[in-house]
Fold:
Amino acid sequence: MADTVDIEKKEAQTTDGTEHTREVKVYHPAVDIVEKEKEILLTADMPGVDDKSIDITLDKNVLTIYGKVDPNVPQQYQASYVEYGIGDYRRSFTLSEEIDRQRIEATVKNGVLKLVLPKAEAAKAKKIEVRAA
Structure:
């Protein structure tokens, strides 16, 4: 007899304590952050978002991602059953001085946002040459 494993449905986390101008839920998108030698890569899952519905701002040291999602229900129809919540996405990150703010790049494809945060020259690891004495 095989062992069974219970899998729990992962609910999207909603933001709290923030006022919004639209009456819609706002979720924290799932994000992966990977540090490489010359840059930090941030990948966020934001289903339903494209390049026209996403806004990325950098104010002082706070990078904010906001994606607007409109429900895709044809006119004169109303959803009778929905398996996942539809809403906007918002996530903020505090950047350190290691990031070169002038060279940050963002792309989005199929609801996946990719941000490249290049490291500033002072923050990059440097190889120190060792010479024989």
Notes: Residues 70 and 133 are 68 Å apart (CA to CA). The domain at 20-72+84-122 is CATH 2.60.40.790 (Immunoglobulin-like). The longest strand covers residues 87-94.
